[in-house]
Automatic annotation (TrEMBL):
This is Elongation factor Tu.
Length: 102
């Protein structure tokens, strides 16, 4: 069962800087990489708030949910940065806005 773990701000890279070539839809399954304390990648579902899709280069606020039986990080905090990937392609960056209580 999925539960929302945090609200995040995501900036998708524009096409001209090797970002996605087409829009990305809400409820997309992506990977987030946190570099603190060591780089770790997690599978997540990203649900955009107030929009159904984002174009390359756009900024969105999202509810971010960890998927499956991953060992979840317990040291996340508001203001923490992360990188966004689609499979192995680096498509954006983000910041945690608010940690959700479980």
């Amino acid at each position: 069962m999925e539960t929302t773990n945090f609200k995040g701000s995501i900036q998708f890279f524009p096409r001209k800087t090797d970002g996605r070539q087409i829009e990305i839809h809400t409820e997309s399954r992506l990977k987030l990489a946190f570099s603190e304390p060591v780089e770790t990648t997690y599978n997540v579902v990203v649900n955009f708030i107030d929009v159904a899709l984002a174009l390359p280069g756009e900024h969105v606020v999202s509810q971010i949910t960890f998927e499956g039986n991953q060992t979840l990080p317990n040291d996340l905090y508001a203001g923490m940065s992360f990188e966004v990937f689609e499979l192995t392609k680096h498509i954006g960056k983000g910041t945690i806005i608010e940690i959700k209580a479980e």
